[in-house]
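This part of the workshop introduces the protein records we will be handling. To make this concrete, we reproduce a full record directly below:
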Amino acid sequence: MEQQGLKEREVAAETPRPSEGFDRKAFEEILEEKRAVVRRLDKIEENKDKTKEKIYRKVKREYEERLSGVMKRLAEHRPLLLDEARSLARRRNEIEQRLTTLGEQLEELKFRRMIEEVTEEEFAAEEAPLKKSVEAEEEEKRVLEEGETTLQRLFEEAYGEALDLEAVAPPVAEVEEHPAIGPAEEEPFETSEEMEATGERPAGEEPWARKGEESSDDIFFEEFVSAEEGGEEGDVIAALEEGEEEKIDFSSTVASSDLDERGLGVEVNELSPADEVALPIDEAPGGHKQLRATLFISKGPDAGKRFVITEDHISIGRNTKNDIQVNDPEVSRKHATIELENGQYVLKDNRSVNGCFINGTKKEIAILQHNDEIVLGGTTLIFSLSEV
């Protein structure tokens, strides 16, 4: 009997101690040991009248000491379990926020269809990826909620008290509410062709992008450059305002008849990166080499698509009327534009909700360089220049 007790104590001593992060398997092993010890203590009480008082007290004391050791090891896991509960609660809160955003986008899309701003085909094309995202988020939320329920059960059994998920959940940061469509997106959408015909830019375009007219916008432009002198935005503007030098021809090898039929400023191209020879602008001999500008989607719902830029102004966004339409719910309807100015391609944020990031830095306006990484919402694009 004593040898058996010693053997069981040796096994208990080998029970894994908590490592970095919550180890559910190790925790459940200790919890099972607690159950076994409690069962033995119950049996000791049931049979105490069948042995001498001295033996009863001795055996009971052994199991009480063993239970104390088990509870000590469970206590070591307690903060790790609470951290895991907080992590699950935080992730669930993030999913709930994304679901709220997706729900608002769906509601807005339905309203725009109701007022016949979008056609039935456009509605179906935009609704499908949004619904798919909702389903994926709801499935992930379900898995997290199952994990939270399991932690509640383990916590209550181990420590004899209820785990209050609301108490351990981290505070939800107050997120500034954005309208589903920013101010720049409230104006009727104009395609590249319409803007060329009217000579106008979208209402939300930055004043410094306008040229050839004196107005209050020009006064704002001067104040902006003065305020930002020496800063990144000022550097970009200064680069765009440089004197007219020899320009590089950015014309594409793509047949113009194909583009005229589609009315787009880009062409979907199945070329692989190996088919293109990279040639940065400043390395073009004499500045007269014809370069082809392309955007390759490396990450996101449209990963693998490649677009050849063939116009001086293209639009990117979730709306199907964009030159480059992105099926990403985190991308705004009219997220950004790329314009050719003074021989350089310039990316401009169109007051998007999630902004534009160039090589990891958020930018309102930026001159694009070969191999720049552009992140719009959950979509990553690679800008490249290659010799025609």
